[in-house]
Design brief:
This protein is an alpha+beta fold and 368 residues long. It is built from twelve helices and nine strands. A hairpin with a 2-residue loop joins strand 2 and strand 3.
């Protein structure tokens, strides 16, 4: 029935519906009846009502009101209601965006923490890569991802882990030259590469052009100043990855690279320990058993010479040395072999291992 010029500009500007007297209220706001009717009912019943951030969806256009519904009284009768509206769409959407950012940031920090935890665990490297890839994909809302590692010569990239890639795409990434493709560029340039349209980029292979993936980010995995490979994620939509997504991927890539580097160092250390153990055994064999065997040879030859020269007493004396030295060599060899079998400690524990050792010695020498 009555309205101010601002109401006309507002309704006609947003919904493109002409405002004229005697127009039904919900014809001006098609689709808003369910949201607004309860407030109208309370106003017509005599109560002043307010709505903060009331969500309205009219003709597929969403907007928000702070609104007051006041009973309109004429001659002591409620004949209608007065509506006063402030459009707060921008404020509500800004708050929603901020809340989403907070949730997204929390999710990203949680993903980074999870990856750091997985990377630090003493578990199989393949499991670490699979778990880290899955968690970072969830954090950046990617449908697929891969981890490619450089070989020792830096000439080829081989696929170490992947999620969401079909067989043909995974096979193409199985082994590829380190200077080709999107990940090859990332590794060679040692910087992130992000695309909103894979199809349009000349570095994209034909198989990926024919796939459903459109948005892409690849980041180099670096540890101690050395690039070890690339972390890649893919989206089916062209919606670009955000700066926060790329920052998270960069951090996760370095965590994964550190885990890979630590695994290589552990393997190298294990190899050095093996070499060191072999050298120790060689020294002990030389210093102990070999010397005893050499002494046995000398005693036996001397005993043989005395026996042939008709001196049985001297021959018997050196044969006693042979027996004593052989026993010593046997003890040294048994100790050496026992030291090569530490698994009994893991299988039985210290107390049972000591008891087993005592039993073996007692039986051998005849003591209880």
């Amino acid at each position: 029935q009555r309205y101010n010029p601002t109401w006309v500009r507002y309704i006609e500007g947003i919904l493109q519906i002409p405002v004229e007297p005697d127009t039904h209220f919900f014809d001006l706001l098609p689709g808003a009846e369910r949201a607004i009717q309860p407030f109208i009912d309370r106003s017509l019943a005599g109560a002043m009502t307010t709505a903060d951030g009331l969500r309205l969806n009219c003709n597929d256009i969403v907007f928000y009101w702070d609104a007051s519904f006041v009973p309109w009284i004429e001659e002591e009768h409620i004949t209608g209601f007065l509506l006063v509206v402030a459009d707060v769409t921008e404020r509500v959407l800004s708050r929603q965006i901020l809340e989403r950012k907070v949730v997204d940031r929390t999710q990203k920090l949680s993903a980074l923490y999870d990856v750091m935890t997985v990377a630090a665990e003493p578990i199989d490297l393949k499991y670490k890569l699979d778990e880290s890839l899955q968690r970072v994909m969830n954090a950046v809302h990617a449908e697929a991802g891969s981890i490619q590692l450089l070989d020792s010569e830096g000439e080829a990239l081989f696929l170490a882990a992947h999620q969401g890639l079909d067989g043909a795409l995974a096979n193409q990434l199985r082994v590829m030259p380190s200077r080709s493709g999107l990940s090859g560029w990332t590794v060679q340039q040692q910087q992130p590469l992000f695309l909103t349209n894979l199809v349009a980029d000349p570095r994209t292979t034909d198989l990926f052009r024919q796939s459903e993936f459109r948005a892409y980010v690849g980041v180099p995995m670096t540890s101690r100043g050395k690039t070890l490979g690339a972390l890649n994620v893919y989206r089916q939509s062209k919606r670009p990855f955000s700066d926060e997504d790329i920052s998270l991927l960069d951090s996760v890539a370095d965590q994964i690279a550190t885990a890979i580097d630590n695994e290589k160092l552990r393997q190298k250390n294990d190899q050095l320990l093996i070499v060191e153990e072999r050298n120790r055994l060689a020294r002990e064999l030389h210093d102990a058993v070999t010397q005893s065997l050499y002494s046995l040879t000398l005693y036996a030859e001397t005993s043989l010479r005395f026996s042939r020269s008709g001196q049985p007493e001297m021959a018997n004396e050196y044969m006693e040395h042979v027996a004593e030295t052989a026993q010593q060599a046997l003890r040294e060899m048994r100790l050496l072999l026992h030291n090569l079998r530490p698994a009994v400690l893991e299988q039985l524990g210290l107390v049972k291992a000591i008891r087993q050792r005592f039993d073996a010695v007692e039986k051998r020498v005849g003591v209880e």
